[in-house]
Request: fold
Amino acid sequence: MLAKFRPVLFVLAAAALAYPLMPFSNDYLLHVVTLVLVYMVLAMGLNILPGFCGLLDLGFVGFYGIGAYTSGLLTIHYGLSFWVIVPLACANGALWGVLLGVPTLRLVGDYFAIVTFGFAELVVLFLTNEIWLTRGPLGLPGIDPVSFDLTWLNPDWFYELEGEVPYFYLAVLMVAFVWLVMRRIEDSRLGRAWFAIREDTLAASSCGVNILRYKVIAFAISAGIGALGGAFYARWSLFLSPDMFKFWESFLVLCMVVLGGLGNISGALVGAVVLVVLGEGLREILPILGLAPETRFLAYGLIMVLIMRFKPSGFFPAIATASARNPLIRDLKKRLAGYESGDKSGTAA
Amino acid sequence: MFEQQLVNGLTLGVIYALIAVGYTMVYGVIELINFAHGEIYMLGAFFCVTFITAFGMPFYVAIVAAMLCCALLGILLDVVAYRPLRNAPRLAALITAIGMSIFLQNLAMIIWGSRAKPFAQEAVPSYLAETAIEWSGVHLAWLQIFILGVALVMMLGLYLIINHTRVGTAMRALAQNKTAAALMGINVNFVISFTFALGSAMGAVAGVLVAVYYNTLYPTMGYVAGVKAFASAVLGGIGSVPGAMVGGVVLGVAEALGAGYVSSLYRDGVAYAVLIAVIIFRPSGILGRAVVDKA
Amino acid sequence: MEPLLKVDNVTKRFGGLLALTDVSFDVRPGEILGLIGPNGAGKTTMFNCIAGVYKPTSGDITFAGQGGAVRTNGLKPEKMTELGIARTFQNIRLFGALSVLDNVRVARHCRTSSNFFGAVLRSRSQKEEEKAIIEESMRWLEFVGLAKHALDGATSLAYGNQRRLEIARALATGPKLIMLDEPAAGMNPRETRRLVDLIHAILDAGVTVVLIEHDMKLVMHICHRLAVLDHGMLIAEGKPEDVRANPQVIEAYLGRGAAHA
Reply:
């Protein structure tokens, strides 16, 4: 469905990419857009569980938080480069995904959801209480921004990201990377195994798919991507505090995924845009209507209820669409079109 | 010290039990985790205080009025938000439940402000303010006895309704097999709404009791209490009403002992840890049936 | 001749319910064995025990896999598929949101190996494996006559074709034994005749067949041997002509004092 709009989307994307370099570009707008990009990464990460595998995760923010604090603490205490920290943070997230997943993914869906919820709450409690590590509710300020340190080549080559513009481009790269990874997984043996688990677990196991192993892999990858978003966020906002990682964030990202269409990667991107823009829009509009900006949560809740009422499958319900672009499948399509004109196939016809 | 914690834990526990039965009954009939139930508990407290301060109702009348209002609210929640999604994907219903929870929480913040308020202590009968018994270092307040008593009466009432009335039998039938129940002529929608009403009334009483006991109420009190009550329901075996009662008491005592002896910072963490542990090691809970994978 | 599958005194209990009692029978390589019996006799339960969905309460199931006979009690379904037992389901269980081709491609899972890194890096071996998967899947779709529907949605197929798709999927797992659970259910006589041809083709392809069926004409026509279950017990085993004349069998299906089936 999106294919029809492809030329328009290209133009919009090009314009969006050129915008920050324009003299009239607005830092606040760039900040919001970068926030959207971070949520896009989170939405794509969460999408793996309910979208590809049919598993409900209510604690995704836990991995986001783990990634963020791993990134923040490693920066503050060891001054590590962002480029070293990202794989470490992702690995930490994935590790916790495995630790939590192995004992719990054999359970019926609702129970797994509850466990993930409890886990995320424990993460927040830990971040709040272990003040020696995280400074608790005071938060973690003074995280260094992202930098390119090539001083080992030439003493002058040290570039630190300043202002919103470079972070915007970095975020775009991050989204593009995750998107590419997701599309490739979607059209692969791994992705097909996940979709099979989502559609019919019993039939999937009778096709040889090891259900527990693949659920754990999904959880680990999802956690890793959440941690990636968190690692970026820490080095962008330069400040972290435990109340940035509460249940509300898990709910918000879940809504983005459902809104977009469970399992549809592009849908997750759309969901992220819609809900972040909605939030910012409400923040501006509500005071005009005489209401406090905090009421936007009320509106959020109500809007989600209404959307679930009228479009419970989201706006782009199609899944497993990446294979259509695979050259092997395109060849097959041409061959089959050849069959239509005349010759019948099949031995047991 | 230990006995004191036990007494405190028991008091806390029966309150969790009162909330937990609401979760468990609704899950039993429609397999939905009613996230908004915590908010009903919170609104029970707020309604009661408002009835006392704005309408001048006496203490006990205000409690009953709050129960009725919450029962109605529960029915409204079912009819308006959940019933249209009976046949929609499970995730949609769950998101709706969370959405309603957020909606109600923020509505309360708008109406009553987000800061904590004290309970209208002037309306509370004075005999409840005193310590009843002092025995080898253990204080037992009349208030605690009151809470235990009210909880006991309510749970007894619930037990009688579920096991000795036609509606109660219908609820149990519905929980076992919805299709068969409908085929037997049970008005499914009515029974589900009744379940919501019943659970909400129990939750409302719990809200009032907590507000009086801690002399404080605030719009977000439903969130944490809701999670703990849900943990109690799972601990006791989700879908089992006696289980929810037992689970509530066990969790309350565990929390009190944990806060007293281990760490008061992780007080809330006890509930989460219990939740995760029960689900991993004994998902059917203390009194629940064995969890069979439907595949 | 060594049996391909040996069911030995298998009993299956679900709490208070005794679904199977001391059932023993063999499946010989290259045959079509019919597992018949009235509704509720335990036929699908037997399939589920063989396929690894249930673990027998007692008794043994032995399957002659690659490295000789393996006792398969308690092995998970995915392991059973790997060993070479495929099955279809009484109520068709397709992957509804996927295409016809993808349904079959999933079945190649147990015979292929690329993982997350292969998927993301698109190595040469991964690409070759994907090509082989498509070719093998199309081969089985052609075998059942559904090749032209390869890129259609699985649920867009007519009912009879959905059953054939499920069979293609099961065959694509590369089994030595395939268990078909009521493949003719809901089919008209013409579709049933086509099914008979398909089952013969499966046999010719070197796959042994066990069949649960209620269509007695089909069963008598196609099966080399029959095993009859009633109330969880084996009441007859042998050639169709012998079984149909067996008074216990007649009584099980038609009640006491009935004429031939």
Summary: Chain A has one domain: 26-339. The mean pLDDT of chain A is 87. The longest helix of chain A spans residues 27-53. Chain A is about 70% helix and 0% strand.
